[in-house]
Specification:
The complex is a heterodimer.
Chain A lengths: L1 H14 L4 H13 L1 H21 L5 H28 L8 H10 L10 H17 L6 H5 L2 H4 L7 E10 L11 E2 L2 E5 L1 E8 L4 E14 L2 E13 L7 E3 L3 E5 L2 E7 L5 E7 L1 E6 L10 E4 L3 E4 L5 E3 L10 H26 L5 E5 L10 E6 L3 E8 L2 E4 L6 E5 L5 E10 L2 E11 L4 E7 L8 E5 L3 E7 L5 E8 L9 E9 L4 E6 L2 E7 L8 E8 L19 E10 L5 H11 L2
Parallel strand pairs in A: 6-7
Antiparallel strand pairs in A: 1-2, 1-4, 3-5, 4-5, 5-6, 6-9, 7-8, 8-11, 9-10, 10-13, 11-12, 13-14, 15-30, 16-17, 17-20, 18-19, 19-30, 20-29, 21-26, 21-30, 22-23, 22-29, 23-24, 24-25, 26-27, 27-28
Helix pairs in contact in A: 1-2, 1-3, 2-3, 4-6
Chain B lengths: L15 H21 L8 H14 L10 H18 L10 H10 L6 H5 L4 H8 L3 H12 L4 H8 L3 H26 L1
The chains are: A alpha+beta, B mainly alpha.
């Protein structure tokens, strides 16, 4: 009887509505009877396992996603605190008022809702960045985990043009890069930012900016021109002496080191408010097309004559960019012609289309020998510069078959690559057929690391790999990858954009000469084995523009040089 | 997250996210089920299990390498549920105070081996998919569609009592089937 009653209560708990009294009764019974307690536990456990199996909302993927969001939120709050602590020394340089004001003016709807506090944490981080002054430009995207990259975009703008940039703080700024809320400072040169709200802004250095969010930028100094189409109305620039809110137009602003600000309206109209007035209506002024004025540090304003030509337009920037690219391309051509005769090359594919034989990838080897790669499937496409060709690897069958004879104590690999997606568990750069001893596998794993996979002996395989270098934000951008197998120093070094990514000693088992032989670029040909009858697909999704293999270990400086001359 | 915090979960010097992700993938299935056996409201099981992993990530320095990770995670889960029982404001994540207390305080160091070890769903999947069609349908309606006994009863023209008994019987069968499969695989 007691057992039947217990099971009835248990099934009410598991599959029906159960009352508090019934649960009291169940607890009283189970605490007296170990068998019943065990039964309770077993059925709870199985119920949950079944629910995990059946309920889509509880899938592993969703569980991981929401855990990732929570991990990031907690990491952001930790790093926010770290930032604030580390910046405590610098705080006095900045007026406190500003912090308060930024919070007050944030009336965006994105501050509310489920994800609200994650976004809030990100915004606080941006604020902390301003306090810390030197927040790394790449703070968000580069440290993004592969788990995270699929669901969250820390960016608010895209860097779309960079011309003659000099003295940029916080490292290299690459075209195509997603820009999170952060501080940007540089000595000279022009950049173009396209904000997610739709505004395009060209800024000329010397300049110091802080990007607050997708429609607000704080400008300490510099000269900028903004083109704000209808959907981006409300885009605002905060300058030391004035706050400008755009009403759908085109305008220029010059913020001098003294803090004095010039505003020029070329088209449409803008609103001006006194700085730090929290858009006080009493201080509101409207400027129309053709108007220009200067606001001195003390807030006094005077009309001036408009000087539109001083503010570089996006179109002008385009032609400047083209000129610079041509120059860069010319530099690379010189390098290319020298390299063709370099005695250290085992194979050099510059990826130049020969229209008479467009299914052949022409390559060079030492001693003036020519190599022929057989193109299968891939289409020719535009490479690093307009007019420069490259191959686009897209479909699972796309590949270039090559034969690279010889045996070498050391090898250096170098390629320019634009990865469009990491679709496979392994995404091939250059893979010798099969996987035999001392024939290195150069590839990228799905979660982002660059790998040199080696079978040292029949039983010892090892992947020499970097941390994840690809994430959502690096897809679609040209990147230079190089890997050096150095048998003298007994180490493997991976480079990304000319910089060392990882350097790792060779395993003890590593010995003997390396070879490539019959191999595939951008895919893998593995003969079916007794154990595995199907072909494993490792096709690359992206473009390759240049592949070099040297029969020596190149130095850090040489790799850096290949990167510098080949940069798009 | 600084690189030097990676060590515990990562012996091969990969980055933390991957090591952590591996850990989660390896343990989340049995851990979530374990959280349920501590009397946590089914609606809040995943939320609390995520918290276990967040605590694990934060406290990784305190993890003793000799110990087994599953055991460590279960210990964290127990502590979280104890807090839950203690803190009035958070009571909502457990079903019933007495039930949670009983389950936490009597929860064995080593949960049922077969069910814990089959962390991947394969054994369960094979067993579920081998169920007779009618039982299979009941499992889908209960666990995928989320219907409780009275709805199922209406739909199937049975009594709620009969539905509950059928579900109890199915779970028993599945348990036996999984144990059988695990035993075979050793």
């Amino acid at each position: 009887m007691s057992q039947a009653r217990f099971e009835e209560l248990l099934s009410l708990l598991l599959d029906d509505e159960v009352s508090g009294e019934q649960l009291d009764e169940l607890v009283a019974m189970a605490s007296q009877n170990p068998y019943q307690l065990q039964l309770l536990r077993t059925h709870l456990q199985l119920s949950d396992r079944l629910s995990q199996y059946e309920e889509e909302l509880r899938s592993e993927e969703r569980f991981l996603q929401s855990l990732t969001t929570r991990t990031q939120a907690s990491q952001e709050s930790i790093s926010f605190i770290d930032q604030v602590l580390s910046s405590a020394k610098n705080v006095s340089a900045k007026p406190e008022k500003k912090e308060v004001r930024w919070e007050d003016t944030s009336s965006k709807s994105s501050w509310r809702g489920l994800a609200g506090w994650v976004i809030a944490a990100a915004a606080l981080l941006a604020l902390a960045g301003m306090l810390a002054k030197d927040i790394r430009f790449e703070h968000f995207p580069e440290n993004e985990s592969p788990m995270a990259s699929e669901e969250r975009d820390g960016g608010v703008a895209v860097l779309t043009r960079v011309v003659n940039l000099q003295g940029a703080e916080n490292g290299l700024w690459r075209v195509g890069e997603t820009v999170p809320p952060s501080a940007l400072k540089w000595k000279s040169g022009l950049i173009q930012l396209e904000f997610y709200c739709g505004a395009t802004v060209v800024v000329e250095g010397p300049a110091s900016l802080e990007i607050l969010d997708e429609s607000r930028v704080l400008c300490h100094s510099g000269r900028l021109r903004a083109r704000v189409p209808e959907p981006a109305r409300g885009f605002s620039v905060l300058a030391p002496t004035v706050e400008l809110v755009d009403l759908g137009t085109e305008f220029g602003m010059e913020i001098k080191d003294s803090g004095a600000t010039e505003v020029h309206v070329f088209d449409g109209k803008v609103e001006l408010y006194d700085a730090e007035s929290n858009r006080d209506q009493q201080t509101r002024r409207e400027l129309n097309a053709g108007d220009a004025l200067t606001v001195a540090q003390d807030g006094a304003s005077n009309k001036i004559s408009p000087r539109e030509e001083d503010f570089v337009t996006p179109n002008r920037l385009d032609s400047l960019t083209d000129a610079r690219r041509q120059e860069q391309w010319q530099k690379w051509r010189t390098f290319r012609n020298d390299l063709e005769h370099d005695s250290r090359i085992v194979a050099y594919f510059p990826f130049e289309k020969d229209s008479t034989r467009d299914r052949i990838l022409t390559g060079y080897a030492a001693g003036g020998r020519q190599l022929e790669g057989a193109i299968v499937g891939c289409e020719w496409a535009e490479g690093r510069w307009p007019g420069k060709s490259c191959l686009d690897f897209k479909r699972p069958g796309d590949r270039v078959r090559v034969q690279i004879p010889g045996e070498f104590p050391s090898l250096t690999y170098s390629t320019w690559l634009r990865v469009d997606g990491l679709d496979r568990e392994f995404n091939s750069l250059l893979l010798p057929d099969g996987f035999s001893i001392n024939r290195p596998h150069w590839q990228i794993r799905r979660d982002g690391p660059l790998i040199l996979g080696l079978r040292h002996t029949q039983t010892v395989n090892y992947d020499y790999q970097t941390d994840s270098i690809f994430n959502l934000f690096r897809l679609g951008q040209w990147v230079h990858l190089a890997t050096v197998y150095d048998s003298d120093q007994r180490r493997i070094t991976h480079y990304v954009n000319g910089q060392i990514a990882t350097r790792e000693p060779l395993k003890n088992a590593a010995e003997g000469l390396l070879s490539v032989g019959d191999a595939t670029i951008g895919n893998w040909s593995s003969p079916p084995t007794r154990f595995r009858s199907h072909i494993r697909v490792r096709n690359l999704n992206g473009r390759m523009d240049e592949l070099i293999i040297f029969n020596q270990a190149l130095t850090d400086t040489e790799i850096q040089h290949i990167y510098e001359v080949g940069r798009p | 997250m600084s690189r030097d915090k990676v060590r515990v979960m990562d012996r091969s010097a990969m980055n933390l996210d991957q090591a952590f992700k591996r850990l989660v993938i390896e343990h989340h299935v049995p851990l979530r089920a374990f959280v349920r056996t501590l009397g946590v409201d089914p609606e809040w099981v995943d939320d609390l299990a995520q918290e276990v992993f967040l605590v694990a990530l934060r406290e990784q320095e305190s993890f003793d390498r000799q110990q087994d990770l599953g055991k460590w995670l279960r210990g964290i889960a127990r502590n979280l549920v104890r807090n839950e029982i203690r803190k009035q404001a958070r009571r909502q994540r457990i079903l019933h105070e007495g039930l949670a207390e009983l389950l936490v305080e009597t929860s064995a160091e080593e949960p049922e081996a077969a069910l814990w070890k089959t962390s991947q769903l394969t054994a369960l999947r094979d067993c579920v998919e081998q169920l007779p069609a009618k039982s299979r349908q009941l499992v889908t309606n209960r666990y995928c569609d989320g219907w409780k006994a009275p709805d199922l009863a209406d739909n199937l023209g049975m009594s709620a009592v009969a539905v509950r008994k059928a579900l109890m019987r199915i779970r028993r069968q599945l348990k036996a089937c999984i144990e059988q499969k695990v035993a075979e695989s050793f």
